[in-house]
Every structure is written in structure tokens, then in C-alpha cells.
Design brief:
27% helix; TIM Barrel; Immunoglobulin-like; globular; alpha/beta; six-stranded antiparallel sheet; 2 domains
């Protein structure tokens, strides 16, 4: 019991060590091995949420409520669009741009709260960023959504002016991450994306920069060798295996671990993560609202698969929350039926913290993906087993609760202590301590079925 109490205390310190009451937060850096993130030299596990329309649709009291809930749920990064459309306005009716020109942000002179301009588009963003810092949350800013760029509303010259404005305005904010792009292929306006990335890097060397690509693609395809790209992102997307028919894409189906595997092998070494997997409550394939919707089990699977494959974190998403769906709206996207203030507490969102807790419960920076731990058949599609390990521990994830055969040769010691970790509630069930053997077999609790997911924890003795 004493050991359990100590472990809980250590995990709590790791989880909340970056939440500073006065909003002063350490900058996120890439770890020494270039695989993960750290802040003040400590492990930083990216647990993100797609709050895409936070700036444009939420009033201040709503924004604070959302940030407070996500902070308590263990999220530490929110991905947000700065300009979603060329005619963007916020919840108070103020425009982001003058004459819909990306090179002329509509900034109110001065910044005196209470003098009538505190709801200025840019002052409102400033306020939300400050409030996020108070709650230990980093904001991943998407400067301008891909559809705006693709629609020829801006070019490289205007993009450079706009990026200059953003960098100078936010480079002194510690809780900023730059997320170039926005659901788009890098080949769509390649010069524009490089103009934004290079300008941000030139004027702001303190913050990480990445690129958010379109579904079933990864940033490394176009920008891996660019100096401005600090880490890679991929969007595994919202399609099922059967819907994965595009000839332009990689056709990995739902196997988001394959994107990690591809990025992991690239040089120079850079961190990578799934910045947009299938969202909880969104229809399979997005557009046919009669099809089934992705569930908590699905978002768990994408999380554990990608992280165990070597990702530096994971971004969760919810259909109702990402668009901040409110009562009274006549139009919604992708068949959204719920309201953000209810769906923010959906099961999948609450379960994400258990992934974060597990990854921070063991030595973090030494962790590597290692499929050689799995003896025999690693499985295909939903039956796939994913393994990761450190020097004296290993985690193996099964989405279906299938039998797991383990090769223990990579682990030190003469015995191993085994346990089951439940991704639905974070509970640990001891299996016992056994002598090492060439192969050990473990049978998860319950019947084999999709969503009966478990993590086998092995600690070397």
C-alpha cells in the first residue's frame, strides 16, 4: 500500500508540475534523444484536444469553463485555429481582419481592459491564452486554416506579413506552440507554408513549430528537412479500413501506428504524434450521418497504438467540442447532435488521462517501440498488438483482449512482475511474479472482442 501511495504521489507531481498559478510556464523543448518533449528538463507528454473554434465561437466565460474542464481531465495542449475563414469574427462580433486581408489584422489601438476594446478579436485571443496558462495548458496556434490558403485568399508575400505579426505578438508567451497548415496537403501552396514557417522561426526561436496535414497524410512528406519544422504531425483521419480508398494517400487504413513507424525511421530524428485521429461522436468517414460514429473505444485504440509505436503524445477530438456546438445554431458540421458543454465530458475524453498517467509512471526518455517483445503473431487490424519498453519495463496493448505471448529476452533480471492496466479506468490488477522464460503467455480479463482493451505491464526484477 505504501508503494502504491508513493507511486500515486509521483504521478501527480509529474502530471501537474507545469500548472503554475500565476500563469508562468516553462517552454516546451525537444528531448535530448529527439523523440519526445520536455519542460524544465522533465518529461512532457502531449495530451491534446482539438478545440478548433475556441477563439471564434466562445465568449470568455465559456472559454474559461472549457479550459477548466480540460485541465482537470489532464489535457495540456489545445489545438486552435487563429483564422478559420477569411471573414472570421469572434463571439462578440469583432472581425479578425480588415477587408478580409490576411496581411492587415484588425487590431484595436491600445489594449486597455474595460475601455470598450477588451473584446477586440486579438485581445480576446490574448485573454484566452493567458487563461490557459493559468490552468497549465499550452495553445497550439494554427495561424490560418488550409482552406483559406487553398482558396487563393492569400499568397506567400501576405502570409509572411501575417506570420511576422503573429510571431511578434506571441513570441513572449511561454505557452505557445505553432501549428502551421491546417487540414491540407503541403503541396497546396507550398511556398505559403514555408513562408509562414520560416518567418515564425526567424522571429521566434523559443517555440516549437509543426504542420497539421490533411487526413491520411503526414507533415514529414513535405517538410521533414525544413529547419522550421521542430516535430512532425500526422492526421490519421476519420475513415474506416473499408473507406480508405484514396490513391493519393498512404492507405494505412485505421493503422495510425504506421505513420509513427514511418516518421520514426526518418533522419534527422524528430518527434511525431497523431494530431487528428477519428473523433469521438463523429460519423465514420465524416459525411454520411447514417453511418456509425466513432466511440471512446476507438479513440483509446488510436491513442495507445500511436504512443506505443513511438509517438511523443496524442491529440483527442470530439465532434461536438471541436466545433463548439451550442444551442440555437441552425448549421452544424458532420452531423453534430450534442452541445460542447455536455460532450466535453464524454467517456473517451475522461479516459485519455489514463494513457498519460501510464506513460509517466515509468522512466520516460528511455522508452522505445519494440515489437520483438511479441512472440509469434503480432496480429492484423484490430487484432494488432503494439509493444513498447524501457530498460526494466514493458507495455503491450491489445484492443480486443486477445492472448499475448511475450519474449522476455530484452528485459533484465531473472523474474518479471506482471499486471493488467485497464485503459477505461486506470485500474491495475496484479497478475503475479514469475520466473523468466523464453516465452510467457498472458490471457487478458474478459472475452475477446473489440473494445475489450488492456495493457500488459511487465516490470523486470
Amino acid at each position: 500500500m505504501l508503494k502504491k501511495i508513493i507511486l500515486i504521489g509521483i504521478i501527480s507531481c509529474l502530471l501537474f508540475s507545469f500548472k503554475i498559478s500565476d500563469g508562468v510556464m516553462p517552454h516546451i523543448k525537444v528531448s535530448a534523444n529527439h523523440r519526445y518533449f520536455m519542460a524544465d528538463g522533465k518529461p512532457f507528454f502531449w495530451l491534446g484536444d482539438t478545440g478548433w473554434l475556441l477563439f471564434s465561437k466562445m465568449k470568455r466565460e465559456e472559454a474559461e469553463k472549457y479550459l477548466d474542464i480540460r485541465s482537470k481531465q489532464g489535457f495540456n495542449v489545445i489545438q486552435v485555429m487563429v483564422v478559420h475563414s477569411i471573414g472570421e469574427t469572434n463571439a462578440y462580433g469583432d472581425s479578425a481582419l480588415i477587408h478580409k486581408n490576411i496581411a492587415t489584422p484588425n487590431v484595436t489601438p491600445g489594449n486597455t481592459f474595460g475601455k470598450g476594446n477588451e473584446y477586440d478579436y486579438w485581445d480576446h485571443i490574448d485573454w484566452i491564452i493567458s487563461k490557459a496558462a493559468q490552468k497549465g495548458i499550452y495553445i497550439a496556434l494554427v495561424p490560418v486554416w488550409g482552406a483559406v490558403v487553398k482558396g487563393n485568399h492569400i499568397g506567400a508575400a501576405k502570409a509572411k506579413i501575417y506570420a511576422d505579426f503573429l510571431a511578434k505578438r506571441y513570441r513572449d508567451r511561454p505557452n505557445i506552440i505553432w501549428m502551421n497548415g491546417g487540414d491540407i496537403s503541403g503541396t497546396d501552396s507550398l511556398k505559403t507554408w514555408n513562408a509562414i514557417g520560416n518567418t515564425l522561426l526567424r522571429l521566434d526561436t523559443s517555440h516549437l513549430i509543426t504542420f497539421h496535414p490533411r487526413g491520411r497524410t503526414q507533415s514529414s512528406t513535405w517538410f521533414h528537412d525544413q529547419a522550421w519544422l521542430s516535430f512532425n504531425c500526422f492526421q490519421s483521419g476519420h475513415r474506416t479500413y473499408a473507406q480508405d480508398t484514396s490513391k493519393k494517400d498512404l492507405n494505412y487504413g485505421e493503422d495510425n501506428w504506421k505513420y509513427v513507424q514511418a516518421d520514426y525511421a526518418k533522419t534527422p530524428v524528430k518527434p511525431t504524434l497523431d494530431a487528428e485521429p477519428s473523433y469521438e461522436r463523429i460519423p465514420h468517414g465524416l459525411h454520411n450521418f447514417k453511418l456509425p460514429r466513432w466511440t471512446a473505444a476507438d479513440v483509446r485504440r488510436y491513442g495507445y497504438w500511436s504512443v506505443f509505436a513511438g509517438a511523443c503524445g496524442y491529440t483527442y477530438g470530439n465532434n461536438d467540442v471541436m466545433q463548439m456546438h451550442k444551442p440555437g445554431e441552425k448549421k452544424t458540421a458532420y452531423g453534430s447532435k450534442g452541445y460542447w458543454f455536455n460532450s466535453v465530458n464524454d467517456p473517451g475524453a475522461k479516459q485519455m488521462i489514463y494513457l498519460k498517467k501510464l506513460m509517466l509512471s515509468r522512466p520516460y526518455f528511455e522508452r522505445v517501440p519494440d515489437q520483438s517483445l511479441i512472440a509469434g503473431n503480432q496480429g492484423q487490424k484490430y487484432d494488432r498488438l503494439i509493444a513498447t519498453r524501457g530498460s526494466n519495463y514493458a507495455f503491450v496493448y491489445t484492443y480486443t483482449g486477445r492472448d499475448i505471448n511475450i519474449n522476455t529476452e530484452k528485459l533484465t533480471g531473472t523474474k518479471i512482475k506482471a499486471s493488467w492496466y485497464n485503459p477505461r479506468n486506470g485500474q491495475i490488477t496484479a497478475i503475479g511474479t514469475v520466473n523468466k522464460a523464453k516465452t510467457l503467455k498472458f490471457n487478458p480479463p474478459g472475452q475477446k472482442t473489440n473494445g475489450n482493451d488492456w495493457v500488459l505491464i511487465i516490470d523486470a526484477i
